[in-house]
Amino acid sequence: MTSPPDLPTADKDALIAALMARNEALMAEVTRLSALAAEVTRLAARVAELEAKLGLPPKTPGNSSAPPSKGQKPSGSSKPKAKSKPHDGAHWPLHPNPTTKRDVLATACSCCGTDVCGVAQVVCEAYDRVEIPKVEPDVTRVSLFGGVCPCCAKRFKATPPAGLEPGSPFGPNLRAFVIYLRSVQGIPLARLRDVMRDLFGLDISEGALVNILAASATPFKSAVAAIKARLLAGTTIASDETGLRVGKAN
């Protein structure tokens, strides 16, 4: 190793100053490279994390703690969509057995107004108009005739026809409909009275509705007993824990 040259004091001071400046520059470069190495390490970890998430489903309010607002669909483009190719629209299918049919023949040409009543015509368009008929009570007035027997001089009266015996004026179909609306659809009595008046034009009191429901208790009990007997006669019984409100008991 050679010894450093003997320099004047002024030159030595300049050389020391230059070396110190060079040292500070090198230290700054080392600091910068250390920061870059740390950033590279952080980015590598982030890349590994993102690659691990590539196979996972996106986070939504349904599968994560993301707020509901994150699940809203982004607004679409305000530009109008291009018109698609026109296609036949959906039509009400024609009923296979219509109640009535109405054939309408043209009487005049829609272009020139010529009378076409005598011209052979074919069906150009067919469609159905569905409507419910007017519903009103079907009231049957039963008059039982009678008189005085010429033989025994006693009074006689005709026998009521089957199904039209005296008593309640309400027939079995009306009774069944009331029971269905009250028991299955759960319509209260006051509203059920309004339903019968508004839909059928039948003014019936809540008391009459109560009597109809009460009169059905005995036949239903017989049906329930028969069903219960058939269930108990089986080898297995399926049970359900779902409760049902009957009267005032669960």
TrEMBL record:
Domain of life: Bacteria
One Pfam short name: DDE_Tnp_IS66
Residues annotated as domain Transposase IS66 central: 168-248
Low complexity bias (residue ranges): 64-79
InterPro entries (alphabetical): Transposase-related, Transposase_IS66_central
Region (Disordered): 52-97
Family annotation (PANTHER family): BLL1576 PROTEIN
Protein name in UniProt: Transposase
Lineage of the organism: Bacteria, Pseudomonadati, Pseudomonadota, Alphaproteobacteria, Hyphomicrobiales
